[in-house]
Specification:
Elements: H1 2-32, H2 38-41, E1 45-49, E2 52-58, H3 63-71, E3 82-88, E4 105-111, H4 113-120, E5 134-138, H5 148-151, E6 159-163, E7 184-186, E8 208-210, E9 230-232, E10 254-256, E11 279-281, E12 287-288, E13 303-304, E14 307-309, H6 323-328
Parallel strand pairs: 2-3, 3-4, 4-5, 5-6, 6-7, 7-8, 8-9, 9-10, 10-11, 11-13, 12-14
Antiparallel strand pairs: 1-2
Bound molecules: 2-acetamido-2-deoxy-beta-D-glucopyranose (NAG) (2 copies).
Length: about 325
């Protein structure tokens, strides 16, 4: 008897669930084909890009104005996925304004809000803890490491890009973003000169990391997780790499070290170099082609980069230098 009623209950709730799913689908489907009505989101606009509805708000006058727009998106039918706020210089983000919106991507371009809120440790993303997957911050002077508080609750964050935002120094990010879901991290053009020695180490799902165009002089093996497939350190001030820095990265495909101050990397940077490796790019450095490059012989076909010295090899591709010739050239000391 008991079993029978439990079964009936289950059946009933299954039907109810089934109906509500269909209902939601019908509710949500019709309006979601279009962006919200223009008047509801003025002065913002909405367009469809790459199959996602994209709300663009530029030069917004006040937090109140922004709140009005966001309130109008708090409906079941709303399926706007991306919110972009640009050229806006008020200092406070309307409190709780993001609750019940469904953004999975937010873009901030030339806004001051980010700085002010992150500095207070306020959580600007409240309400999007389980929704927001991608955060992009461009051209917004943050100039302190404190913003990480605000990102901490974002359990689903998989892509983080902060570019041209004066982000220096770089702390141990994996102490802040503790859900470790992050797959892509791009921190380009930020004048970063100091990187914590465990900066990225705990992100064991991180596959793409770019620190392009910063002022990094030195990296350490302890900074990086072994999950990386792509690492870009181009446009920095590196003079060499430590031994074994990429060791254990069994899925590594591409290493970019274009435009640094590298002359010689005297150590094998792979204990055991991954079969997956496709490119090791040292273009636009001043490579001193000499015997200490012996370690690249095993992966010559992946190497890009030209000799600067000795003069008889100038502009020759390092990988095309005959092994015997290379080994016969003594490296001159660099300071
Ligand atoms: C950045 O936004 C401000 C308004 O807050 C605007 O005056 C300025 O022109 C914007 N800068 C750029 C490069 O668009
Ligand atoms: C960024 O902000 C800091 C402090 O507010 C300031 O010292 C610095 O000059 C700013 N950087 C740029 C490029 O505007």
């Amino acid at each position: 008897m008991l079993r029978g009623s439990v079964l009936a209950l289950l059946l009933l709730s299954a039907i109810a669930n089934g109906q509500s799913v269909v209902q939601d689908h019908q509710d949500g489907n019709q309006p979601s084909d279009d962006c919200p009505n223009k008047d509801l989101i003025k002065p913002c606009s909405c367009s469809e890009e790459l199959g996602k509805k994209h709300l663009k708000c530029s030069s917004i006058g006040s937090p109140l104005e922004l709140r009005k727009v966001l309130n109008n998106l708090k409906t079941k039918q709303n399926t706007v996925a991306v919110m972009e706020l640009s050229n806006t210089n008020f200092f406070s983000f309307p409190e709780n304004a993001l609750f019940q919106t469904q953004f999975n991507e937010m873009i901030f371009n030339n806004v001051t809000i980010v700085k002010a809120h992150f500095k207070d440790g306020k959580n600007i993303f409240m309400g999007l803890e389980h929704t927001l997957k991608i955060v992009n911050i461009f051209n917004s002077n943050i100039s302190s490491g404190i913003l990480w508080n605000a990102l901490e609750p974002l359990e689903e964050l998989i892509v983080l890009e902060i570019s041209n935002a004066e982000l220096n120094p770089l702390p141990a990010l994996s102490e802040w973003l503790t859900t470790y879901q992050l797959g892509k991290l791009f921190l380009t053009s930020n004048s970063i000169s100091e990187v914590d020695e465990n900066a990225f180490s705990k992100f064991d799902k991180l596959s793409r990391l770019s620190l392009k165009d910063n002022n990094i002089k030195e990296i350490k093996a302890s900074m990086f997780p072994t999950s990386l497939t792509f690492i870009d350190l181009s446009g920095n001030l590196l003079t060499t790499l430590p031994p074994d820095v990429f060791s254990g990265m069994q899925n590594l495909q591409e290493v970019k070290l274009v435009e640094n101050n590298i002359q010689i990397i005297p150590y094998d940077v792979f204990t055991d170099y991954p079969k997956s490796l496709k490119t090791f790019d040292l273009s636009k450095n001043k490579l001193q082609c000499c015997a200490k490059w012996k370690w690249i012989m095993q992966m010559k076909d992946k190497m890009l980069g030209r000799c600067d010295t000795p003069s008889n090899l100038k502009n020759k591709n390092l990988k095309d230098v005959n092994e015997e010739t290379l080994l016969a050239i003594e490296c001159t000391k660099i300071d």
